[in-house]
Amino acid sequence: MEEKVSFELNGKQVEVPLDQDQSLLWVLRTRFNLTGTKYGCGLGYCGSCTVLMNGEPVQACAIYMDIVGGQKITTIEGLAEGEKLHPVQQAFVDHDALQCGYCTPGMIMNAVGLLNRNPNPGREEIISGMEGNLCRCGAHNRIIDAIEAASKVMTK
Amino acid sequence: MNANELEKYKPREDENDTVGRRSFLKRLGGGLIIVFGVGDFSLLNAAEDLSEVDFPEFNGYLRIREDGFVDCFTGKIEMGQGINTSLPQALAEELEVDVFKVNMVMGDTLLCPFDAGTWGSLTTRTHDKLIREAAAEARNVLLDLASERMGVPRGRLVARNGVIYMVLDESRRIAYTELTNGEKIVRGLTVKPELKGPDELKIVGQPFHRRDSLEKVTGKAVFTADIRLPGMLQARILRPPALRSKLVSVDLTGAEALPGVKILREEDFIAVLHPDFEKAGEALAAIKASWEVPESLADDETIFAHILKNADRTRVRFSDGDLETGKKESDILVSEEYHDGYKAHAPIETHAATAVFEKGKLTMWASAQSPFGTQRNVSELLQIPKEQVHLKQILLGGGFGGKIYSQQAEEAARIAKMLEGTPVQLMWTRKEEFMYDRFRSAAVIKVDTGITRDGLIRYFDFNIFNAENRGTILFYKIPHHRTATHEGDKVNPVHTGAWRAPGNSTVTFARESHIDTLAHRIGMDPLEFRLLNMGDQRAINAIKLAAGKFGWTAAKPPSGIGRGIACGEDAGTQVTVIVEVSVDTTTGHVKVNRAVVGQDMGQVVNPQGTIIQAEGCVNMGLGYALTEDVKFNWGEVHSSNFGDYRITTFSMIPDKIETYMVDAMDQPPTGGGEPAIICMGAAVANAVFEACGARVTRLPVTPERVLAALKGD
Predict the structure, then answer these.
(1) What residues of chain B, 219 to 278, have a C-beta less than 8 Å from chain A?
(2) What gap in Å lies between CA A132 and CA B649, rounded to an integer?
(3) Closest to B638 (Cα-Cα) out of B496, B498, B493, B431
(4) How many Å lie between the alpha carbon of B123 and the closest alpha carbon of chain A?
(5) CB-CB contact of B167 with B146 (8 Å)
(6) Given CB 3.0 to 4.6 Å as the disulfide criterion, which of B192, B321, B384, B639 pairs with B645?
(7) Which residues contact B557 (CB under 8 A, 6 or more apart)?
(8) Inter-chain CB proximity A100 and B79 less than 8 Å
(9) Which residue of B has its CA nearest to A98?
C-alpha cells in the first residue's frame, strides 16, 4: 500500500502520497496549484519559497515531505482572511514595498514569521531577520518600513 | 548588446505589414478606438474613416468601452518598473477618466500592435506623449459627439471623470459610454491635439501607488511558470559543463528506466519530461553524458589581459581639439586603468516559458522583455508563420535587460512541437540562469588626463575596451578630448548582453573615479572640482541638487567615514549620486550608510514610481559595487547560485535613500529606470577613498581590494 502523508494546509487537512525526495515547494506548486510560493534558487539562498510551518518561516525548497506530516503549513494564499489582508500584506501595499512582485510572497511570509517570534522588532532585528530573502528590484528600504508599520498595527 | 545582436530584435520590413495591423482593429467590438504611433501616422486626417486605412506605423491604441472602462493596448511589458501605473496616469490625465478605469493590455502578440521591446528606459520617453495625444484626441472626438447629441456648442462643454457636462448647467450631461451607441468609431491622431500645459496637470506629476500590489501580495499574480494547464509536463534540458561544448556520448538508459519519464531528443538537444519538476530533474541527473570542452584561454582573473589583447577593433566615437596640444597645456598628467568583471542580471524569477502546440499553432507565455522578438525567433525556429505563434500577456519577475533574449522560449517551443498537443513548461534552474545569462561585459578602461594647477581639465583620452560607448557623453568642458571604443569578436568567453544601462555603469565607474583622483591630486574638493569643469547645465542642476540635499561640505581627511560623488548621463537623464560609507580598515569591510540621488529627467509622470526606480537602482547597484562578480573559467561559469554570486541583501543597503528631481515639468520626460544605477560603483569607490585613502580601481570594491589598496598594492 502506498504510504501517505497528511498535514494541515491553509487551515484544511490534506493528504498526499509520501515521496521523501519531494520538496514541499513542488508539492505546493504542482499538486495544490499554490503557485504563490515561488522557485528562485532551489537551495535555500533566496527565500522566495518561504512558507510558515507551525507559524515559523521555512524555505519550502529545503523541506522534504517526510517531515511535513502532521505539521501546519500556511502559504501566501492562506494569509488573508477572505478580503481582509493580513497587516503585513496591507503594509506592503501601503508602502509600495514591491516592484516585480516575484519575491514578495516569500518576503511577506518571512516577515509574518519574524513578527510571530518577535512582535516588536527593532530595525536591526528586521534587517537580520530578512537577510535570507533576496530582492533584485531593490525594494529593501520599503520592505523594512512596511514590516515596522505592520508590527505597530499588530501590537496595538 | 552589440549592434548585430540588437539587429535581431528590431522590427523588420515584414513586421510593418498593414494587413496584420488592420486586423487588430477588425477584431474589436463597439466603442471609440484611437490608434497612435511614432511615425508619420499622427499626420493622418482624423475626419477620414480609418477602419480600412493602412497603418504603416502604429504602436498602440486605446478603446473607450461601453462599460466605462478604457483599454490601452501596447506591446510594452510590465516587469516591476511600474509602467502599468504611469501609462494609465498619462491616459487618464487627457481623457478625463479615473486612473483605475484604465485597463492595460500589454505584450500580447495577438491583441497588441508590434513593439520592439521593453528596454532602454524608453517607455515613458516614447509612449507617454503618444498616449497623452491619443487620449486628448479621444476626448476631442467625444466632445464632438456630445456637442452633436446635446445640441450644445463644443466650447460650452467640459469633460470630467468620464462624463461630459454643459458648463453652465451641469444637470445637462452625457457619459462617454452613451456616446458611441454600439457603433465602432476608429480615429487616428489629428495634427497634434493640444495637450494640457504643465499647470493644468491633475494626474500626471502626482504620486501614485502601484496598481498591481493587491495581486502581488496575495500570491495571485501570475508569472510564466505559474500557468497550470491540464496534462502539462515539466521539462529539463541536458546541459554541458561549459558553453560551446560538444556532446561526445550519452547514455539515456538510467533516465528511461524511471517511471513516468519521457525523453525527447533531436541531436544534441535532449529534454527530459515529467509532470513533476523534481522528478524531471532526477531523470536528468540519471543521464550519463560526456562532453568535449573547449580549451580555456582566460578566467575571471586573466580576463583583463585577454580583453586588452583581443579587443583590437578601434573606433573613435567622438573627439575635439588636439590631444598633443592638450598635453602641452597641462601641468599634471594622470593615467589610470580601471577593471570591471562580468555581472549577472540575476532576476529572482529565472527564465521560463509555458507552451502548447496544437494544429500548427503555438500558444505561449514567456518571461520575455520582447514578446514580438520572441514570437519571430520562435516562428523562424519552428518554421511556421509568425501569426501562428501567440505570446500572451504575462508579468515578469524582473528583467533588467536579461529577458530580451528568447533562448528559453525557443527551447520550450521546440519541445512543445515535438509533444504536439501536450502543454510543456520550462523553468530554468538558477544554475542554468547563470550559465546562459547574457552578462554585463567585463571591461578595461584606460583614461589619460591632463589638468592645470588651477584644476582645469585640458585633455582627456578615454579608451573603453569591451564595454561599448553608452554613457560617454562628455558633460565636462574639456578643449582636447577623444573617446574611443575597442571591441573584438573573440573577446568574451561567456554570453554578454544588455544589463540595466548597458556598459554605462562601467564607463561611469572609470570616469568618475578618475575625476576624483584628479581632484585629490591637486587638493581640490571633488564637488568644487566637478563644478569648475562641468559644462552641461542639466548636469550642473543634478549635482547641485544632490550636493545641496546631501549637505556636502569641503573634503575631509580620512576618518573611517567618507563621502563619494558620481555623476553620469543615461537615457537622456542627468544624474548625480552621493553616498556616505563607513570603512573598517582592519577588515576592509564597507557599509553604505546613506545615498542621495539628484536627477534632471524632465517631466516626471509618477514621482512615486520615479523615486522607487531610483531606490531600486541604488540597492541593485550596491551589488555590483560591493559583491557581485561572475566567476568562470572560459565557458565554464562557476557562479551558479546566490551563495557564490552575492547580490544585495538587507544588511548591505543604506539606512536612507533620498531621491530628488530637478523641477522641469515643462520639459519632455527622459528615462528613469536606469540612470541612478550607473553611479553606484564610482560613488562607493570615491567614498571609500575619502574614508581611508584606498583607491580601488576594480569592481567590486571587496574587502580584499580595500586592504590591498591601503597597503599600496
Answers:
(1) 219-223, 225-226, 228, 234, 275-278
(2) 8
(3) B431
(4) 16
(5) no
(6) B639
(7) none
(8) yes
(9) B213
Q: How far is A40 from chain B (nearest CA, A)?
A: 5
Helix (H) or strand (E) holding A6: strand A4-9
* Strand-strand pairing, B480-487 and B457-465: parallel
Q: What stretches of B486-602 show up as alpha helix (H) in DSSP?
A: 504-521, 526-533, 537-550
Q: Do B620 and A136 touch (CB under 8 A)?
A: yes
Long-range contacts of B459-466 (CB under 8 A, 24+ apart): B459/B321, B459/B323, B459/B325, B459/B326, B459/B327, B459/B329, B459/B330, B460/B326, B461/B323, B462/B510, B462/B511, B464/B503, B464/B506, B464/B507, B464/B510, B465/B307, B465/B308, B465/B311, B466/B307, B466/B311, B466/B441, B466/B442, B466/B491, B466/B492
Residues 66-95 of A with CB under 8 A from B: 75-77, 79-80, 85, 89, 92-94
Q: What is the pLDDT of residues B172-186, one digit of tens each?
A: 999 998 887 777 777
CA angle (B710 as vertex; B708, B713 as ends), nearest 5: 45
Strands across the sheet with B590-600, in order? B561-570, B573-583, B590-600, B656-661
Comparing alpha-carbon positions, the chain B residue that sits nearest to A27 is B276
Neighbours of B301 (CB within 10 A): 10
CA distance B120 to B154: 41
Q: Quote the ipTM score.
A: 0.98
Closest chain B C-alpha to A74 CA, distance in angstroms: 12
Contact B219 A35 (CB under 8 A): yes
Q: Does B427 touch chain A (CB under 8 A)?
A: yes
Sheet containing B269-274: order of strands: B262-266, B269-274, B233-237, B424-427, B352-358, B361-366, B389-391
pLDDT in tens, B544-559: 999 999 999 987 788 9
Residue numbers of B between 520 and 579 with CB closer than 8 Å to A: none
- Model confidence at B29, pLDDT cuts 50, 70, 90, reads low
Q: Are B665 and B603 in contact (CB under 8 A)?
A: yes
Bridge partners of B343, per DSSP, are B440
Q: What is the pTM of this model?
A: 0.93
Residue type at B286? A
